[in-house]
Amino acid sequence: MVVREDDPVLFNDLQEKGLDIDKQALAAPVKNAVDKFQLIPEFLKVRGLVKQHLDSFNYFVRTQIKKIVQANDLITSRIDPNIYLRYKDVRIGEPSIIIDGVTEKLTPQKCRLSDMTYAAPIYVNIEYITGSNASKATQMKRDVIIGRMPIMLRSSCCILYGKDEEELARYGECPLDPGGYFIIKGTEKVILIQEQLSKNRIIIDTDKKGCVQASVTSSTEMTKTKTVIRVEKEKIYLHLNQFTSKVPIMIVLKAMGMESDQEVVQMIGRDPRYSELLLPSIEDCVKESVHTQHQALEFLEQKVKKLPFSTGTDKEGRALSILRDLFLANIPVRENNFRPKCIYVAVMLRRMMEAMLNKDAMDDKDYVGNKRLELSGQLLSLLFEDLFKTMNDEARKTIDTILTKPIRASRFDTSQHIVKDSITVGLERTLSTGNWDVKRFKMHRKGMTQVVARLSYIGTVGHMTKISPQFEKSRKVSGPRALQPSQWGMLCPCDTPEGEACGLVKNLALMTHVTTDDEEGPLISLCYSLGVEDLELLSGEELHMPNSYLVILNGLILGKHRRPQRFANAMRKLRRAGKIGEFVSIFVNEKQRCVYIASDGGRVCRPLIIADKGVSRIKDHHMKELRDGVRTFDSFLKEGLIEYLDVNEENNALIALYEEDAKEGTTHIEIEPFTILGVCAGLIPYPHHNQSPRNTYQCAMGKQAMGNIAYNQLCRMDTLIYLLVYPQRPLLTTRTIELVNYDKLGAGQNATVAVMSYSGYDIEDAIVMNKSSLDRGFGRCIVMKKMSAISQRYENGTSDRIIRPSREGYEAERMQILDDDGLASPGQIIRPHDIYINKESPIVTRGAVTSPMGLPDSAYKPSRQTYKGPEGETAVVDRVALCSDRNNNLCIKFMIRHTRRPEVGDKFSSRHGQKGVCGTIVQQEDFPFSERGICPDLIMNPHGFPSRMTVGKMIELLGGKAGVSCGRFHYGSAFGEPSGHADKVDAISETLVNHGFSYNGKDFLYSGITGEPLQAYIFMGPIYYQKLKHMVLDKMHARGSGPRVMITRQPTEGRSRNGGLRVGEMERDCLIAYGASMLIYERLMLSSDPFEVQVCRKCGLLGYYNYKLKTGICSTCKNGENISTMKLPYACKLLFQELQAMNIIPRLKLTEG
Amino acid sequence: MISEEEQKTSKIPVWDLPDVPKGKLPPHLELQRTRVLCTFDAPTHTENIRYSGAYASMGVDNSLRLEDFRNNFKVEVIKLTEDDMEFDMIGIDAAIANAFRRILIAELPTMAIEKVFIANNTSVVQDEVLAHRLGLIPLKVDPRLFNYMSENDEPNERNTIVFKLHVRCERGSPRIKVKSNELKWLPNGSEFIRSTEKSTADSTSKTKTYTSFSCGQDSLPEFSDNPIAPKHDDIIIAKLGPGQEIELEAHAVKGMGKTHAKWSPVATAWYRMLPEVVLLQEIEDERAEELVKKCPVNVFDIEDIGKGRKRATVARPRSCTLCRECIRGDDWDKLVALRRVKDHFIFTIESTGALPPEVLFTEAVKILEDKCERVITELS
C-alpha cells in the first residue's frame, strides 16, 4: 500500500506496538487507498462458509418445491374425471418426528446420537372429492403430510437458523460448524457440488475426428435432449437421438418451414464465405429432391426411430413433433411457429462457420463460464419431482382400481390414497446411498453424497466446498485437469487432490458464490422495454446487420439491439440499483456480436468493488461506517458500491488488483487478492513464496491433521475421532485462518524447529524429536473409536438380553470392566480381549415361542462382544450411550478412547507440504541448545529445502520467531505484503535484531553431546506442525503363523485379518535369479499351504489315503499299487481338482528324486 | 624507491625468519586454541584441543596439569535467587561443563506424581490427560529424603508422597478453575480402600489402602514444620463446569529426568561461553555512532577522546547475544571480531523448585564424582 511506503515511521511504529495494530492502523488517516479487508469478514458474516449450499437448499424449499407441486397439482381419476385431488399449497414444517402419535421436535445433535434422520414433514393443503357417483362433495384439508424432507443444517428450515452462539450451545451444536449437510440415519451427508457443462447454450467444438460441431444440451421442465449439428465432409448434418441417422440440416430447416434457400442464407449472414460453406449442404438437399416442407417432413419420417411399442397411428406427425418438442427443446414453439427455432439453428450454423473460418471462435469446454455448478437444492428438486410424480401416479392408480370395483364398503375419500412413505423413503435412500437414479430425467449418477469428513475442522469445511467433476476420473486427458485462467478468484488454484482425480476435483475459493435460478419473465420484458427488437419482427437479413447485437437471455434469443453497450450499461445500472437480481450477469461478447444475459442457477460469481473511471466507489467513510457497525455488506451491495460478477461478465471488466493500479479504464477493483485461494489453501502462510505443488500437498494434508473437530467434539459419537490433547493456534497466522476460525479450532502445535542434520535418523524427511517435549505433551493425541452393540428383538418375540456379569469363575477376569448392568462403565481401562457387553442371545429365534413367560437361562447362548485393540495397549471406555434404533431395538454405543504419545514412525507435517515421519526420539540433554537455553522440539534435515523450494516455510520460521519475541501474532496471508496482511521479511528481520537475534534467524548453538559450539549457525525458530492421522500403531503388522483362508489353506491377506506377508512375483523372481531354491520352496510351500497327496505313478492322478488299510489308494485305478506320497501346495491340489471338474485332466509324471 | 620495492618483493629465506619463541604458541594459534571465532558465516575453531601433544612440534605442552587447573579454576556466582542462578565457571573444559548440564537435566532425582488413582472425574479433561498434567506439577520437596521405589516395593512413607484432590463445582455456581493448591498432602498415605479379591476372608485386619505407611510423614522431623505441597499454587489443572467433580489421589515417587521430563529438577540448565568483542581497528566518529546504534543489546559505548572526536569502545561484551549485527555488511567484520572464550562458561540453572539451584549444582557435582569413582573402581 502506498501509505505504508510513504510513511515507514508509522509502519514500524505499528509493527512494534504489536497487537494495537488493528485499532491504530484502522483509525489512521488513509490518504488514497482504502483498506477494504474489513469487507471480507463482513462478507463471510452474512454469507457463512457454505452459503452456496444453504442458498440452494433454501431456494428449493421456498420456491422450487412450490413450483413443482404447482406444476403437478392435479390428480384426476381416469375412470371418473370428476373425481380429483388438487394440491393447493405446499410448505415444509419444523424438523420433527412422530413417535406413537406424538410429535417430537428434532435437534441435529439428537439425530446424530440416535441414528435418526433430521427431516421435517412436507405439509400440503388439498382440495378433493369425497364420495362417488351422485353424492360427491368437495372438501378441503389443511396440513396433510405427504412425506418427510431431510433438512440441511443451518438452512431456513433448520432449527439452528439464525440462532446465536449460546442457543446453539444449548442445542449441543458447535457454533463454528458451517452446516450445509444433512443427517441421514445418524450419519452426516454432504451432497457434493456437481460440475456440469452449461445447459441450453450453444457450444462449438470439434469431435474426435476433428469435425466442427455445435451442440446444445437442452433442459426444460419437461425434457432433456442433446442436439448436435456437425460438419462432415463439408456438409452439415443434424444428429439427434430420435433419428436413426444423421439428417441434412437443410432438410430440417425446410421441415420447419424455411423452404427458401435464400432466406436461410440471409439468416446466416450475407458474407459470401458463409454461403460458400453452406453450398454443399444446399446441393445435398437438392440431390435428395426435397424442396417443400411436406417433402422434408416425409424425408424425416423415414429417419425417425421406430419405438418398440409404437402405435403407428399418429405416425405422420412424429417427425414434426420431434422437431417441435425434442429438437432444441429449450426453444419454445408456440402455435407451431417454428421461426425462433429456425433462427436459433441459423445462429448455430453461423457460429460453426465462424469457427471453421477462424479457429479462435471455438468454445472452450473447460472455460469456467461454460460450466454450471449443480448444488444440493437442484439435485433434491429433481429427486423430489420424480418422487412426487410417482406418488401421484400411484395415487391415481389406486383411486382408479377402487373406482372400478363395483361395490365399495366405505365412503370414497380421495385424500386417503396419498401414500406418505414413498417420498420419505425415496429421499432418505437416495441421500444415504448417493445414487441418483431418476429415470424420468435419464439420470443415473453414483456417489453424489459423501459422509462429512470429520477428521479435522478444516477438512469438514473443505468438504463443503468440494466440486466433483463431470468426467470419469479414469480418462487420461489434460485439458479439463489444467488450471484455467478463468478460474481466477472462483475456484482455488491449489486445492485439488493428487493422483487420478487431480485437477478434476476442485474447490471453491473463499469469496465465491454460486447463483440460484432467478425469474426470467421480468427480465425479458425489461429487455424489450430497453430497446431490444423482438425476434418475431425481424427478417433474416436484419438479424445480422452490422452494428447490431443479438440479445440472448439464458440461451434464448430475445432479439437484437442496435446499441449493445448502451443496453448493457443500462442493465448494469439497474442491477446496481437493485431493480433486477444482483446475480444477473450481462456480458457483451464482441466476437460473437451478442449480449448474453444470464440469470440461471449454478454460475459461479464473486464480489468486486465497482470503480468509476478507475476511482473506487468505496471511500474511507464507507469503511468507517462498516467498522462502526452502521453498514453491512448488504448495504454495500444495495448502494451499488460492490457487485457480483460471474466469469463471463468478468471479460467485460477491467479489474485492478489494487486501488493504486487502477487506470482510466478500470471498472472494478479486487477486494483482497488472498481470496483467490480456498479454505484449505488459506491456512498456508506465505503460499506465494512456495513452489506450487507444495501448496497442493498441504491442502490434502491439512484435512488429515489432528486437532479440534468442533466445540461439541466430546459429545459426538462418530465412528472414529482423532483429537489433539493440546492444540494451538498457529503463531504465524493468515487472514483466512481468522476468517474460517482455524485459530479457534486449530490442528497442530507450534514446535521450535532447528534446521540441521542430526544422528542420521533424519534422512528422507524424517524428523528427530525431543523426548522432553513429548513428555510435556507435544503431539499427544486421542483416538476415539465407536463400538456398538444391538440388543436384537427377534421375530418370535424373543430378544437378546444383557445380564449381570459373573464376578467369579474363569471369565471373571475378562469381565472386570463390566458394571452390574452388563455394560462396560465409563472410565474403565479396557484391554484387548476384555468383554464390554455381556450379551446373550436366544438359541431359537424363529418359529413359535415355547414358553410364554420368558425363556429359561439354558435357552440363551452367550454372544458377548470383546474389545480388539492393539496388544499391550490400554484404552479407556470414554462414554456409553443407549438409544433405540429405527427398529426399536436397544442400541448401545461405546466410545473407546486411546491416548497416544508420538512414537517413531508417526507422521508429522508442516503447513508447506513437507511431511515426514518421526525418525528417532532423542533425550533433551543430547539436543543442541542455544545461548539463551532454548532447546528445539524437533530437528528437521536441511535437505528438505533445496528440492522442495518451500521458501514460505523459512519465512514462517522467521515470522514465528519474531512473533514469540515481540508478542504479536505475525501474518502471512497470500500476496499480502502490499496490503499489509503479510509481514515483510525486512520488517521481521528488524524485529528479530531488536530482540537480539540474528536478522537471518540463525542462532549460535552448542552441541548437547560434546558441549562445544556447533560449527555452523543454525536456522531455528517456531514452525506450526501438524500431526497427521497416520500412526504406526494403526499400521504395524507382523505375523508368524496365523489364520488361513478356508478354500486355499493359504495365509489370509491384510492386517485386519492378521494376514501373512506375501512373497510376491518380484520377490520370487529375485530368489529364482539368485538360485535360492530352498528358500523359495520354504516360502511358497512350507510356510504357506503344504499338503501331502497320494499320487498314482501309473495314471498320474491324485488318490487318497485309506486310514483302515494304511495305504494310499488311487481312485481311478482302484488299487494302491503305484502310489507315491508327496508334498504339494494345497492350492495346486485344488487347481488340479478344479481342472478335473471342468473336464481337463492334469497328470503328474513322477520321477525318482 | 627501487630498493624498497625490491625489499618488499624479495623472498626472505626460511632460516632468516625469527624464531618462534619456545614454550609459547604463536598468537594466531593461541587465539584458535582459546577462542571460538564467530565469523559472519559460521563459528570456527569451536573444538577444544585436548591432545597433550598437539603443539609438541612447537615445543608447547598442551597437557592439563592439575596444579594449573587448581590455580586457574574459578567459580563466580553472578546472580542467585530462589529459583534461578547464574554463575561463571572459569578454567574448565566444555566437556565437563556439559556433563554438569546433562546431569542437571537428566540425572538429578526429584519427586513427581507418577500414579493417579481416579475415584471420580466428571470433568471434560480426560483421565489420562489429567494424570499427565498432574505429573508435570513441580513439587516442593527435597528428593534426598526419599528412596527410589523399585518394581516390587510396597509404597511406604519413605518412597511415596500421597496427595488428594477433591473438587466439586456446585450446580448453579459459575465455572471454576482447579489449581494446584487444591492438591492436599496426605501424610498418612492413601485413603482409598483397596478392594482385595478376598475381602471377606480377613475382615479383622486393618482395611487395606493403596499404600502401607508405617507412620505419618508429618511425624517425621523433616516434614513436621515443612509440609509438602506443589511449588506453585496457581497452576491450572482443570476447569470444572457446574455439577462436575474430580476426586483423585496422586502418588508421587522419586525418579530421574532421563525417564520422564517431569522428574527433571530444572526447567532448563545451560551455559554459554563468555563473549569477547574485539575492535580490530580504532572506530571513530560516525562509524562509532553507527556501531553503537547497530547493536541491539548495547555492547558498545562511545568514548570521548578529546578534540570533539569520539571512539567506540566495547563496554558490555557480556551482554552480546551474537546477533552478528555489528559484523554485518560493509567490511565491518574487518573492524569488529566476535569471539567466545572457550574455558569460561556462564552457567544458568533455572530450578523448578524442588531444590534451590545452588544445591542442585552441588548435587550434580556429587553425581559426577560418583560416576568418576565408579569408573576408577571398575578400571582398577
UniProtKB/TrEMBL annotation, chain A:
This is DNA-directed RNA polymerase subunit beta. One of its GO terms (molecular function) is zinc ion binding. It is found in: Nucleus. NCBIfam families: PRK09606.1. One of its GO terms (biological process) is megagametogenesis. Residues 48-411 form the RNA polymerase beta subunit protrusion domain. DNA-dependent RNA polymerase catalyzes the transcription of DNA into RNA using the four ribonucleoside triphosphates as substrates. Component of the RNA polymerase III (Pol III) complex consisting of 17 subunits. Residues 680-1057 form the DNA-directed RNA polymerase subunit 2 hybrid-binding domain. Its EC number is 2.7.7.6.
From TrEMBL, chain B:
One of its GO terms (cellular component) is RNA polymerase I complex. Coiled coil: none annotated. Pfam families: RNA_pol_A_bac, RNA_pol_L. One of its GO terms (biological process) is DNA-templated transcription. One of its GO terms (molecular function) is protein dimerization activity. HAMAP family: RNApol_arch_Rpo3. This is DNA-directed RNA polymerases I and III subunit RPAC1. It comes from Handroanthus impetiginosus.
